[in-house]
């Protein structure tokens, strides 16, 4: 991959590898690369644009592995930390798998806002191994029931298995609030469950038969990873593969649901 410089990378994080005109890159390395994500990526990637971005990224060093060509930079105000997509989790960075495909370093990443602390000896509902004694990058809680605790990697794994139609809190089965919060916290929820996903790589120049980036798009960006207010992510109540920010769909800050009609 021209962007993350890895031959083998976790497809759950980086997506499929695509090749076009001699450029080989992972699907999500492209989506997250600084300034690369555009609305027209729904119909394929503009490759002239990609070439230019790869040149620019050459200069930057990854603050995690130290190697060059770190194409993702933290959106925190004035922050210049850059990294490769496969290096993100190692350093506690959050990458949000929905437009505008924003990324944050460990210092500027969004935190879960729910007031909750695990009781003593609380275990992860998925792997049954104890969680940490408070909310952290690796220990997360359901924002709806506030008592279902799990590890980040365990819930990520579950999201990959379930896909957007079936992913919910493993404790209370809340879907709506749970999915929006997990996406904001950097959990990738693929459109299709693992057993339905196409295994074959497709050229990026072709329209994807399915596309994880196929959200209704937000015209406005923001540097704030907010979990509340105008920049809170709302998922469509009819299809949670679609989402918007309150501000981008001109919704009031008090609006709790939104319906996408293009699905
Ligand atoms: Zn890559
Ligand atoms: Zn790196
Ligand atoms: Zn930062
Ligand atoms: Zn676990
Ligand atoms: Zn729950
Ligand atoms: Zn938006
Ligand atoms: Zn749908």
TrEMBL record:
Pfam family, one: zf-HC5HC2H
GO molecular function: zinc ion binding
Keywords noted in UniProt: Metal-binding, Zinc, Zinc-finger
InterPro entries: EPHD, PHD-type_Zinc_Finger, PHD_PHF7/G2E3-like, Znf_FYVE_PHD, Znf_PHD, Znf_RING, Znf_RING/FYVE/PHD
Domain RING-type as annotated: residue spans: 124-173
Gene Ontology cellular component list: nucleus
Residue ranges of every copy of the PHD-type domain listed in the record: 1-109
Cleaved signal peptide residues: none
SUPFAM superfamilies found in the cross-reference section: FYVE/PHD zinc finger
Protein name as it appears in the record: PHD finger protein 7
């Amino acid at each position: 991959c021209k962007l993350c410089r890895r031959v083998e990378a976790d497809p759950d994080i980086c997506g499929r590898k695509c090749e076009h005109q001699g450029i080989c890159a992972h699907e999500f390395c492209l989506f997250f690369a600084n300034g690369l994500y555009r609305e027209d990526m729904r119909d394929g990637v503009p490759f002239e644009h990609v070439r230019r971005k790869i040149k620019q990224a050459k200069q930057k060093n990854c603050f995690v592995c130290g190697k060059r060509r770190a194409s993702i930079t933290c959106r925190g105000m004035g922050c210049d930390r850059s990294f490769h997509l496969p290096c993100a989790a190692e350093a506690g960075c959050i990458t949000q798998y929905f437009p505008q495909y924003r990324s944050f370093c460990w210092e500027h990443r969004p935190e879960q806002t729910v007031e909750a602390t695990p009781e003593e000896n609380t275990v992860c509902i998925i792997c049954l191994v104890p969680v940490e004694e408070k909310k952290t990058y690796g220990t997360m809680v359901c924002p709806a029931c506030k008592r279902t605790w799990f590890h980040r990697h365990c819930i990520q794994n579950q999201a990959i298995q379930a896909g957007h139609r079936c992913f919910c809190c493993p404790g209370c089965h809340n879907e709506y609030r749970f999915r929006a919060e997990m996406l904001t916290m950097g959990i990738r929820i693929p459109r299709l469950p693992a057993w339905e996903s196409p295994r074959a790589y497709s050229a990026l120049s072709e329209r994807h038969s399915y596309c994880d980036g196929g959200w209704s798009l937000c015209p406005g960006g923001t540097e704030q990873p907010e979990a509340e207010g105008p920049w809170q992510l709302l998922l469509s109540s009819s299809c949670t593969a679609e989402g918007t920010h309150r501000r981008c769909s001109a919704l009031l800050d008090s609006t709790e649901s939104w319906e996408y009609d293009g699905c």
